[in-house]
Amino acid sequence: MPPSKRNSTRKTSSTIRRIAINTGGGDAPGLNAVIRAATLSALNQGWEVVGIRDGYHGLMMPANYPDGGLIQLTRERVRGITHMGGTILGTTNRGNPLKFPVMDKRGNVKEVDRSEELIRLIRRNRIDALICVGGDGSLAIANVLAQKGVRVIGVPKTIDNDLDKTVATFGFDTAVSFATECLDRLHSTAEAHQRIMVVEVMGRYAGWIALNSGTAGSADAILIPEIPYDLTRVAAHIKQRANRGRKFSIVVVAEGAKPLGGETSVVEREIGRAERLGGIGERVAQEVEALTGQDSRVVVLGHLLRGGSPTTFDRLLSLRFGAAAVRALVEGQSNVMVALDPPVVRYVPLEQATRRMKTVPLDCDTVLTARELGISFGD
Question: Quick one: 91 and 182 in the same domain?
């Protein structure tokens, strides 16, 4: 929403003395840039800034940390971290405070809601506002805390780009850039050996990374969750290429892709944690080899997409988001997420931002472009 029409609960910024920043879920390039921008912006307001270790664990399990679970964020502490991958605060995708895994006396694990306890800990530590940096899961937790009275600003982070109400999330551009570079490298070895190279990328239930890197990296087939695939169609496309003298192919597979009438490939389910996807690349490589009779190999990029320095786009976006989060607090905002709406950063209600997953529209320009380039989606 534009600055003149930001409708959320307003509180005077003069009530703020101390804010906290936390990072949750999977790591993404740009997290440290957000921390630096938010810290410097807050210090310039005369506020004290602390970082919470490993999501909310630093508050809920302080005895596990030599420093008590909270880090004092000073100018010196955040100096020189913009270009660094990872997060100086640590992160986790376990221990959701709304569904915290607890073992009973019989050894059974059940999920309990510890949000009220977390809110008491936030107040006990004199935290007047929280900047929560995370993906859909982390921001859904932030929304619940905000509904219960905690002053929260969300910052959208995920390499998957699946958060609604923002054109882009930081970390996505870096992941796509690295995946595209990998595809460039695989072309030469695939052609040298006349092989099919199946490249599995992250993205969970959205195909943004696969679509963008596959199109930019001249893949021959792209399999995404939004379009259930039929491998006989992919195999037919590969055979047509071979008949034209192109005896190698590159197939990009999103980890959440699934066959027509089939299920997503899940390798692990655990209470208190999102299910872990994987294995689809190996399955596709084996089936494509059987259908084409052509030697196939699989490359799983996995966590390589999360590591390393952020691109210029992600650095700048992260810095803009971090500064905008503090600006929102100064303006009296709460329960909003900062969002990219080029050329500006806007505020949108957290409830709207976490209501649904942003998946690839089948009529989006990149899908249309890929089809017009002759890339198969297996449909």
Answer: no
